[in-house]
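As practice, study what follows.
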Amino acid sequence: MEASFQTWDRNYKEKRNLYWARLRRAWQDYQNGDHGPYGEPNMSSFKYFMERQYGLRVNMVSDNIDGSYQIIDEAKHTMFLLKYGSN
């Protein structure tokens, strides 16, 4: 029982860290790129950018990303994984 929990915990932490690393790279690209209709780069406009560009709805709490998300477009999310790393 202990070993299976440790494996689950390690896998969860690895996946969480990969998600945050991908978001950091996407945020850097967003800050450095053309923002188009999203206006100045801030967390609120980044949320809408991620939804429209990569099919990923990042959940926000008080204008901060809380770590949970929903995939709203599989094809766009696949492009996100390909661009920012799938493993």
The helical segments are 2-32, 43-54, 74-84. The CA atoms of residues 18 and 78 lie 15 Å apart. DSSP finds three helices and two strands in the chain. The chain has one domain: 2-84.
